[in-house]
Amino acid sequence: MYGERACMIRYGDRLICVDSSLPIFSMLGKKYTILIMGMLSGSREMATFNQIRNGIPDASARAISLRLREMEKMGIVKRSTYDNHITYFLTEEGLKLKESLKDFFTLVAGN
């Protein structure tokens, strides 16, 4: 390890170095981030706040609201009005991030 970077990921014969200080790593480690991304994936590409909250058991409204604002600020999630409801969906960057985490989602879901 050197500086803020750590060479820890082997991909074939390559060693990939990761800058652990990047904000995206902090965001992915926060409670509910991955679950919210999962809620905005697959068959439900957009969801209202209540759909997201109801889909994440034991999550407080405050925690979900805070996380959505943080994700929106990072450009992962976009807030919009659709059919007179405020909805959330993954941005292009959020979709790329979700795609890169696809194997993780599959592993966690046991599929």
Key terms for this structure?
alpha+beta
What topology does this entry show?
Blueprint: E1 5-11, E2 14-19, H1 23-29, H2 33-39, E3 46-48, H3 49-55, H4 61-73, E4 77-82, E5 85-90, H5 92-100, H6 102-109
Antiparallel strand pairs: 1-2, 3-5, 4-5
Structure in words:
The chain is α+β, with helices and mostly antiparallel strands and 111 residues long. It has helices at residues 23-29, 33-39, 49-55, 61-73, 92-100, 102-109; strands at residues 5-11, 14-19, 46-48, 77-82, 85-90. Helix content is 46%, strand content 25%. It has a three-stranded antiparallel β-sheet with strand order 3-5-4. The protein has a two-stranded antiparallel sheet with strand order 1-2. Strand 4 and strand 5 (85-90) form a beta hairpin. The chain starts with a strand and ends with a helix.
Task: Please give a quick description of this structure.
The chain is α+β, with helices and mostly antiparallel strands. The chain is built from six helices and five strands, in the order ββααβααββαα.
